[in-house]
Amino acid sequence: MRRPPWAGGRSGLPGMLLILPALAMLAALYIYPLLSSIVMSFVSDAGVGLENYRKAFSLYLIDMLYTVGITILSLAIVFVISVAIAGYLRFNRWPFLNFVYRLPLFIPFLIVGHSMRVFLAPHGILNLILSRITGIPELPGLAFGWGGLVISYVWKQFPLATLLILGAFQSVEDSYIEAALNLGSSRLRVIREILLPISGPTVLVAMVLTFVSTIGCLTIPLLVGAPKPVMLPVDMSFRVTYFNDWGVANALGVISYVIVIVLAYYYLKHMVREEGA
Predict the structure, then answer these.
(1) What domain range includes position 154?
(2) 250 has pLDDT over 90
């Protein structure tokens, strides 16, 4: 019986050599910084211990809760918008919408933050338009608060989630949908009871990617967020820039890792259950 190339021996050597550069880059750019940040999070002026974590929780507990809350709220809104657009495009061909919703994919986070800062500011474009319509001269801006932050995150994140979910919806057999419609189901019910359950793994992937990208974003909360509370990446940046305190910054980074790992655990648990079924 012939052994597969990955089983070892001389036949697997060319394959190992081919993937070696990618593995080396992964180790240098991800694994080493990850392990280094974990180790250095336990090192402070007092020695090796939990001093950095004590300081992180005493100074930034509110910011941790704020970060999780903003991320979950943005995730929920992205889910609703993405499923709505993907469901509509599954039943209707609208090339204009199919083109327009993808545009934020190609706009960097820095440009999104600056654009939303101008658009949502107290004297920004949105308030100028609303003032002309309503006649109210002074309207509060959405920038520099949690509302503008959520709007910015959602606008940037929903296109990728929509793209993934739409692809999953389109892969569902038409016969399932036609049978449900013929039996009197509405399109909303078809989305809820047929498309979403069948596309569950892909929807979960889209939400995980959205969560990770949102919780790790720095530029948008710097440009649009409130002075206090702030997202954890802003705290990490300030801790290094103004205090040169890499220990607490690394501790905040590890706390962010743990938050993401909790989500990844439930994702992997769901995927294992799906494969077992």
Answers:
(1) 59-276
(2) yes
